[in-house]
Amino acid sequence: MRNEQELSSLSLLGNQGTVYADDYKPSLLETFDNKHPDNEYVVTFDCPEFTTLCPKTGQPDFGHIYISYIPRQKMVESKSLKLYLFSFRNHGDFHEDCVNIIMKDLRELMDPKYIEVKGIFMPRGGISIYPFANWGDADHEQLARERRAAMLSELSAR
Asked: Is 119 strand, coil or helix?
């Protein structure tokens, strides 16, 4: 069980006075220590209600975001991730930008061994967009290449 000292850096979890950011705010992200850094395992978040704005028209865009990573020493706390993703609600950026921004922010926050972010956005004007961004450290570069190739194969099979 985690002790109070281990949880002291988490200000959002259990906070009843949650404030939702009006615009993109990466400073909302919080981490906790990985108690199993000797194990190589995958953590996946499924975020089915992601919203952002078209940077040109201001129209809302709706997407499904999947985040998977292999942790090193730090892990992202899920409530802070939820609030961070919500902060995109009034942010104007293209789908591809949002997916890359999320990946880069989480990479900078946690320094994972591997991370990938996939977006499945609802059609606008009859076109769906499925951006995918990933990164792996020196030991996981091959995994990153394989996952990108798998994504290309998956999308071309549709």
From this structure: strand
